[in-house]
Amino acid sequence: MIPVEQYERSAAYLQDKLPFIPPVALVLGSGLGRLADEVVDAVRIPYSTIPGFPRSTVPSHAGILTAGSLNGCRALLFSGRFHYYEGYDAETVAYYVRVLKLLGVKVLILTNAAGGVNLEYRVGDLMLIADHIQLGASSPARGEERFLFGPRFFDMTRVYSPRLRDLAHRCADEMGIAVREGVYFYMPGPQFETPAEIRAIRLLGGDAVGMSTVMEATAAAQCGMEVLGLSCITNLAAGMVPDTVISDEEVNMNAAGAAQRFGNLIKAVMTVL
What we know:
Layout lengths: L3 H14 L6 E5 L11 E7 L17 E7 L2 E7 L10 H4 L1 H9 L3 E10 L9 E8 L28 H14 L3 E8 L8 H10 L3 E3 L3 H10 L2 E11 L11 H24 L2
Helix pairs in contact: 1-3, 3-6, 4-7
C-alpha cells in the first residue's frame, strides 16, 4: 500500500506550487490534449517533478498538470493518466484522485477514448457514462482502511453524477451536439478485445469498452467526489466490422477528429458547474 505520507507530500508540493486550488479537475483522454493549450494564465507542472507521483508511459499522454482558467472556469487539467496495463496496480492508477481529495477538489471530469460495442454506435459519437462494469478483483480501495480517503465499504449506485449528466445533456442540446448515454465496460488491456469478448460485453450490458477511467471513478466515489464521465467512440469494437484490424493509430486519429466537438462540450459544461 502507498503510505498516507506520500499522498500528503504530493498534495503539499502542489499546494505550494499552484496559484489556486480550483473545485474542478479534468482528465484529458486520448485526442483531447490540445485543450490544455487553451488554458489562460496557465501554470504547468510536469508529473516528474511532483514527489511520489507516478509516470505516464503512454507516448500520447504528455504527463503535465496544468492549472488555470478554461472558458472562464478555474480548473486543474491532467494531460495524461495512468493505466493498469502500464504495470501499475489499482491504487497507483488512481493515485492522483486521492491527492485531489487532500487538496479539496470536489468535481472530477474523466474523459477517454473508447470502442463502440452498442450496435447503434458510430465512430465519433460522444457518450456520457451512466454506469460502468468491471469484472475483476482490482480496486483502488483494496487494503488497509484509511478514513482519510473514505470508508472501506462505500456506495457505487451513483458513481457518475446524475446532476452533472443532466448539465451535460442540456449543454449538448443547446450546442446541437448529439450525445449518447451508456455503460462503460472496463478491460485491463493492453491488447484490444477479441470478438468473442465483445459479444459477451454486449450481452452483459456494455455500450462502450476501454482501458481506463473505472479505477479513478471508483476512488473518487470513495472520496465523496462528484464525477462526470465522457467517452469518445474512436472505433467499433472487434468483430463489428469484417476484416478490420483495430490499432492505436486508428484510435488516436479518430479521437483527434472528434476533439473539437468533445472539447466544446466539456468547456460548456465547465461554465455552468
